[in-house]
Amino acid sequence: MRKTKKIHLIGDSLFARNEGYDKPAIETFLLKKDPQLIIYNSSVAGDATKDVLNRMSAILSVERCDQVIILIGTNDLALNKQVPLPEFQENLLKIIMSLKEKYPANQITFLSPSPVDEEKQHYRNNRLIENYAKIIMTVSQKEECHFVNLYQLFLEAANQTSLSQLLEGSLDDGLHFGSSGYSLLADMILEQL
């Protein structure tokens, strides 16, 4: 019998939104696919890297898990509150250093932000997402953490369906996704365990 896995999700609204479920949508989809999973979710809608850093002591107080999954950067790159790339990179490094106080690098996975539907999303664009994703990848790999390019994964999945369908959530704002996107995200997270 397989050992029950514990995961800790850290991020912004993409990990925190309920999308009509009684708990965050990502938790709902993960538990549908693996009912034995134990999930701790420290995600807060609107968070950027500096907000995660400000909450790091609370984040580190969560019970030790088998894997920490971080999805951050979507709010750092938003044009109306953009964090410059050098500051973003420094914040990521500080997050990793803090997490490494409790976890080895191989238990830390960073996800890039997913793409947006540029026809609906006015504060973010896919060129910016690619630039911030490259920083996340570079810092993660340099620090020997895992990195998953969620941006690329969503674009590949959009070959089977449409990107707008993957990103169609209850807000339908081109950023926050619904069932199709959360199912894809849950599959990807489970592959990391």
From TrEMBL:
Domain SGNH hydrolase-type esterase positions: 9-183
Coiled coil: none
Database matches in Pfam families: Lipase_GDSL_2
Domain of life, source organism: Bacteria
Protein name as catalogued: Esterase
Organism: Streptococcus zalophi
Lineage: Bacteria, Bacillati, Bacillota, Bacilli, Lactobacillales
